[in-house]
Design brief:
alpha/beta; 216 residues; globular; two-stranded antiparallel sheet; four-stranded parallel beta sheet; binds iron/sulfur cluster
């Protein structure tokens, strides 16, 4: 791979504007700063889509599960929001840039890459809390926006790794360390001896349900 390769990355908006997140869940500006600095230092151009939840329900929304967002109106809304960012992606690809990855957000019913199974709350609707004992045969389930993004990229014949920003994981957690390593592998695969197959365990075809190693 050429060391002159020009790179872009597609990300969820709250990764650069943490205020978009559900207000009672808090914001992590430090982690966003770390991510943005990392990308800028490596000259990775950022394309973001507008936060689907904020543009549908505003900043004072409450936390909800994936079940509540899984409806035709919200899906249409996500599809509309993706139109311009995906035109941007297409234009960059046409001009020989490389789409290194999409980065979503851990445990988001909208922009999460591995939503999985969650607890049902007292109102008999899905909560934000994952079940304590996920079974290996349960579907990984992506957030609604990520599901639509995968479909749209697939229609364009574009495949790229889908990564998940570990905003909820502890700074010294394995998940955080894994994220940074995977990001580096996608951005600078030539640094790795196994560059011919840099991210077999994480690089997903946009049409696939989830990275093989993450399927549950
Ligand atoms: S994860 Fe997606 S929906 Fe949630 S705040 Fe971020 S951009 Fe908005």
């Amino acid at each position: 791979m050429s060391r002159k390769d020009r790179k872009i990355i597609l990300i969820a908006q709250c990764l650069v504007n943490p205020y978009c997140r559900v207000h009672i869940l808090g914001q992590n500006f430090g982690l966003s700063q770390q991510l943005v600095n990392y990308l800028m230092e490596r000259k990775v151009g950022v394309i973001q889509y507008c936060c689907p939840e904020t543009t549908a329900m505003g900043l004072m929304r409450n936390p909800q599960g994936r079940q509540q967002y899984d409806n035709i109106f919200f899906r249409n809304h996500c599809k509309e929001l993706l139109k311009v960012p995906l035109l941007m992606v297409r234009e960059f690809l046409k001009n020989k840039y490389r789409l290194v990855a999409f980065v979503g957000l851990e445990n988001s019913p909208t922009c999460g890459v591995h939503w999985g199974k969650h607890k049902i709350n007292k109102y008999r609707t899905e909560s934000l809390h994952p079940v304590d004992d996920p079974q290996p045969n349960e579907p990984a389930l992506r957030g609604i926006m990520v599901e639509i993004l995968a479909e749209e990229l697939s229609l364009d014949g574009v495949a790229c790794p889908f990564l998940e920003f570990p905003a909820l994981s502890a700074p010294d957690s394995e998940k955080r360390a894994q994220f940074w390593e995977l990001l580096q592998r996608t951005i600078e695969p030539y640094r790795y001896d196994d560059a011919a197959a840099p991210a077999e365990d994480t690089t997903v075809d946009a049409a696939d349900p989830a990275p093989k190693s993450e399927q549950r």
